[in-house]
Amino acid sequence: MISGTLPGMEALEAFLQPGRRALAADGTLLPRGEQHAGLLGGALLVVDLEMSGPHPREHEVIDIGGVLADVGAGFPEQGSWGARVRPLHIGTAQTGALKVAGYSARKWRDAAPLEEAFARVVELGQGAALAGWGITSDMAFLAETARRTETPWPFADVALDVQLIARKLLGRNEVDRFNLGHVADRLGIGRLGEHTALADAYATYDVLVKLAERAGLGGNGGGP
What we know:
Layout: H1 9-16, E1 20-22, E2 43-51, E3 61-70, E4 77-84, H2 95-101, H3 114-125, E5 129-132, H4 136-148, E6 158-161, H5 162-169, H6 180-186, H7 197-214
Parallel strand pairs: 2-5, 5-6
Antiparallel strand pairs: 1-6, 2-3, 3-4
Helix pairs in contact: 5-7, 6-7
């Protein structure tokens, strides 16, 4: 929770504003011209998904991870969780998407059902504002997951795109392209071994912490 020792919400809101996106009641991103003044709240759930393809109604979430953090100086970490998700229609998957996720039947043998995985993510971050890197696709799949599992939207009605915050703060003399791996490398953030949704959620979280430090909003936050 935010305490008197943390910077005021005005400074935090100004730092986060470039990445702020408003959501409809079902979790879908609203168009840029239809933003609302939803409350950010006291917590962020930094999420990443791997999917079997780009279309939420046709393809499936096959890996999910999230890092919960307080909205405050350094965005102190409060917990994390991630797991592979069992696909029900692997025949509709795109080969390239499966390759990116590192999918194999052996690796996914003990994957969690979608309902169980989504329930765990909700348990971790219910009511939190979601954050991610280039969040359009992830938000579409999360909204579709809530629909498929018949779950009322369990998170805040605003989300944050950390990539947009990075674009605001980092110059082209520092960063050649704004993909997560490149930005993390340029900021001196190590990758967390095997490519997973949770590893990318942590990389996104660590980039957010580094950017906050640059904006004078640093603290004791940071990934493991």
